[in-house]
Amino acid sequence: MxxxxxxxxxxxGLIEQEETATGEPLFRVPRNQIIEVCTFLRDSSxxxxxxxxxxxxxxxxxxxxxxxxxxxxxxxxxxxxQRIHLKIPVPFAxxxxxxxxxxxxxxxxxxxxxxxxxxxxxxxHPDLRRILMYDEFKGHPLRKDYPYNKRQxxxxxxxxxxEIQRYVAAQEQVQMPSDEQQPAAxxxxxxxxxxxxxxxxxxxxxxxxxxxxxxxxxxxxxVIHLKLKLDGETIEDVDVGIGYLHxxxxxxxxxxxxxxxxxxxxxxxxxxxxxxxxxxALAVEKLLGxxxxxxxxxxxxxxxxxxxxxDHLTCxxxxxxxxxxxxxxxxxxxxxxxxxxxxxxxTGARLTVSWVRVGGVKADLTADFPQHCRAALKTVREKIxxxxxxxxxxxxxxxxxxxxxxxxxxxxxxxxxxxxxLRSTGVDYDVRKANPYLVYDRFDFDIPYGEKGDNYDxxxxxxxxxxxxxRIIEQALEKLPGGALNVDHEGKEMPDDILLPGSAMADxxxxxxxxxxxQIQALSDPTLxxxxxxxxxxxxxxxxxxxxxxxxxxxxxIEGVMNHFMLIMxxxxxxxxxxxxxxxxEGGNGELGFxxxxxxxxxxxxxxxxxxxxxxxxxxxxxxxxxxxxxxxATFGTIxxxxxxxDR
Amino acid sequence: xxWIVYIAKFxxxxxxxxxxxxxxxxxxxxxxxxxxDRIGANRASIFGMRALGLFHALADVLKLFTKEFFIxxxxxxxxxxLAPCISIFFALLGFAVIPHADSLIVAGQSYAxxxxxxxxxILFFFAVLSMAVYGVILGGxxxxxxxxxxxxMRASAQMISYEVALGVSLIGVILVYGSVDLLEIxxxxxxxxxxxxxxxxxxxxxxxxxxxxxxxxxxxKRIPFDAPEGESEIxxxxxxYGGMGFGMYFLTDFIETILIASMTVIFFLGGxxxxxxxxxxxxxxxxxxxxxxxxxxxxxxQLNNLIVTLLQFAAFIFKVxxxxxxxxxxxxxxxxxxxxxxMNLGWKMLLPLSLVNIIVTAVVLYWLR
Lengths: 648, 369
Description:
The complex is a heterodimer.
Chain A: H1 3-10, E1 16-18, E2 26-28, H2 34-43, E3 51-59, E4 69-77, E5 82-90, E6 96-98, H3 107-118, E7 121-123, H4 158-175, H5 189-201, E8 208-213, E9 225-231, E10 234-241, H6 249-254, H7 262-266, H8 273-288, H9 294-322, H10 326-347, E11 356-357, E12 360-361, H11 369-392, H12 395-401, H13 409-414, H14 419-423, H15 431-434, H16 455-479, E13 499-501, H17 502-510, E14 521-523, H18 533-539, H19 551-556, H20 558-568, E15 579-586, E16 591-598, E17 606-610, H21 612-618, H22 620-624, H23 629-639, H24 643-647
Parallel strand pairs in A: 2-5, 6-7, 13-14
Antiparallel strand pairs in A: 1-2, 3-4, 4-5, 8-9, 9-10, 11-12, 15-16, 16-17
Chain B: H1 2-35, H2 55-66, H3 77-93, E1 104-106, E2 109-111, H4 121-142, H5 146-177, H6 182-188, E3 192-193, E4 197-198, H7 201-204, H8 206-219, H9 243-268, E5 277-278, E6 281-282, H10 288-291, E7 301-302, H11 305-331, H12 339-368
Antiparallel strand pairs in B: 1-2, 3-4, 5-6, 6-7
């Protein structure tokens, strides 16, 4: 029985199926049924959906539907490697939805974000506070009627006064206990509780005390605020505060063109920017129904894997450094430098590369790339071996990592963990294997997984994943279609006399000598975007809707000029058909998903990122409760929280 | 006359340490740079001279002196100011009893090459070392900062725990050499075993050497025992200190490193002794006729007492430098212990081992006698 039939049978007449561009089922569920439907899907349906991957809101103001908001649920079945999307219409007058926290604890933070961004409230949510925006923020920024360029003061003058009043009130309450209910401060009860706790801590019989860790703390990257309740050195409880690096990625995307979103995606997980680029491009291409060229697929795989190695190198190196092994950190940074030089060679940038385009990539490989790449991989392997020798069986390091930051498999799944942190618990879920995208199904590689779910297993998983990525890159270089770069796409070697510097060609074009240009190829570096006919066809599909024509055609033919202008000019550009699509890639930290909604214009209607770190951080308290302060640092390191994608 | 000697010695050692401690920061930077495939500090220059970055030590001190020294709100002002001074004072005091060479005899008058020729050197060393913990815990407490308190607590617990192992490990040494006078212990190590092996502590008491080194590194609060600082965890007991307040804590660490290294040398590496070099000259068993045919008669290559003293002084400095280098290599290789693991190592490993060491040493000595 298909999933749709099962749902229809269980909830007759309540659930409608909608059309998606994703090929994945999308069901519209009435809001009072969502808990039952989700419980059914988690426990009784076949296949059962064990992961709540994502939960987000959409403001449907301009979509022409009878409801104002929609809340989307993205469930995943690890057993059948299948996704299902649920959607609840929410009216403007009464934006309340039942909270899903009792079904999946992962919903906790996601729902807080929806409340923060859209003002949709969740019934019976244990702790509905703002999460990305600060408490004083007025309004809900992702609503379509909130202007994207509206500014608000970060903290108003009365803030300090109110803090003092709260403190005094809390102190009075402690001194003179009364039966009267304390009037709850709106949306900020936790702070009040902290103050109370602090006051209570002055009582000497109380053994625990409150420690504010971050945002300015060396291990918190300057962007995480932990309120720790400590008993001596043991952590009793923690409240994680995020949002210090919120850059309104999703809002900015809504006022950008489709290709203009790429620079913003660089800044999500800024340690492995290419993977973010690829994830977003795949989602948009799914929406457009474009098949990219073979070579471009291989290039994306190669660069993604280089980025992944860089990501893991940084994570493990920084982790070692935070545990005091500074030398090991610098060995890994040296290896990463070799990789970043490769990235620089291809993309022209080191950190914010913006290398992928809808329909292809910005630039092809250089002629020497394969040699450089193999040399760099050799360095990486040497450094990994050195690092392994220094740390893996080092007694101090081993004792610090084994048995700390433990999370059970069930809890990891319930919190929606993905990536190395999930795999360390023994679940071998990796998007590259489970739902292969690009050409990952053509390579021979393994997914390492652990069993105990502690810091040490995460460390070993990451270490092994880097070696597997090296294997993928080497295989991809072997199988790379399109061959060398000094041949055209038919394999014929190009004679020198039809080559002309790009600038000279542009001059000829501008002065009207266009007739000869069509036969001439631009003599320019293959890593420069656009300007090279033979390479252009290798990395871009024949898609006039999205792909800028090569410069030869732009300067040399009227069709080229028109095509160029149609893609560049305001109000034209890439226009995917109205619809929605979800695409996930395996990021450095886990499933990095992009849910894009188009209303048929040249700007995305909504770009939703499913950041892997967000789920990880929402379950962070489970991992460190009962551990020591020093373990918190190790655990925080192996989670590899990247604030860029956590706060967006 | 005696006062002039004291003042001269005191001025010399204070000056030597004031130069050595900042110099050690440079050594540490350069050494770590070599280990980590880096160049290391080399930017500071005077009139365009960079001198391998040596001026960084000077620049650091100047920077620390000119920085604002602020006292946080709610801090215990007097104690806050006093704490780093206590720390550095007791670290410096430890050098008073260190013999840098054998006594120098000038015109029939014997001059001890240590500031105070105390015959209870070991006890003095431990007394001073235990006082140093006050600077740390008072600084942590007076700062009125949770992190500082945590750091102070960790430091005090760690230093007191490791002093036990440190002290007990030395009892074996005291048993062997039969003295608590550092000069006597140094002198005793010039004797030879089987006619060729110098009776250095490391050969006589190998287990005690490892315990002493480990506990000694723990006393200096450096990696892998830097839980009290733990810059990525709790930043440390000196979190609220800026300027020279921080500078004094920082230098205390380095001075303590020199102190512990000196003590290691005295107890285990023969102190100022150069193998086969006695007060009257060079004795090499069996080889003297081959090397120095002229000395066959006496079996001694005669040397002036002043030259011997200078050679011993140089040997002492060299040995201390080697030990410091070893400690720094450890510091840049290992990760940091967790607080409870430090306690476990101190109480459950080092202390029982050092007790076993005493028993074995005592039994062997009794049997030999």
